[in-house]
Design a protein that fits this description.
Length: 163
């Protein structure tokens, strides 16, 4: 029998407090950058790029670091978009398996070719009107819609389509 003390512990699983996560709605023209997660929580699912904030790391620095690590892109100015709680239920009596408080920013792509990195297995620039096949978490869909509604460049593209 193996020694349970020798098994690595994921401190984010069954936490004693919420973890802060940072997400980014990165827009380019009328597309948003999505990533496929390579680790729990939500392993194998499409999502927005982002990850855990490090101790002493400002939130905007974390957003830019996560974008570079996971996708290789750079963005312009970041603006606060939304705060979302992502809570994954756990086993009865143990509390939530995961609990993240996610601070979502929005920004426009400025440089870099998107490529998977870190714990990401795939990346895709997806048209804002073509998100259905990606099976996004409803909160991700909500913040993407919020970003599109607030972005004047997306509005101009939509206006041009109506001509």
């Amino acid at each position: 029998m193996s020694d349970p003390a020798a098994v690595p512990v994921n401190r984010r699983e069954y936490p004693d407090r919420p973890w802060v996560g940072i997400g980014v709605v990165a827009l380019r023209d009328d597309t948003v950058l999505l990533i496929r997660r390579g680790r729990p929580p939500r392993q194998g699912e499409w999502s927005l790029p982002g990850g855990g904030q490090r101790l002493g790391e400002p939130a905007e620095d974390c957003a830019r670091r996560e974008l570079r690590e996971e996708t290789g892109i750079e963005v312009g100015p970041l603006s606060l978009l939304a705060v979302v709680d992502a809570i994954t239920p756990g086993e009865p009596g143990r509390g939530p398996r995961f609990h993240y408080t996610i601070i979502d920013f929005q920004a426009r792509w400025t440089a870099g070719e998107a490529r998977p990195g870190g714990d990401v297995t795939e990346v895709a620039w997806v048209r804002l009107d073509a998100l259905d096949p990606y099976g996004l978490w409803p909160e991700a869909r909500r913040v993407i819609a919020l970003a599109a509604a607030r972005d004047p460049a997306v509005q101009r593209i939509e206006d041009l389509r109506r001509i």
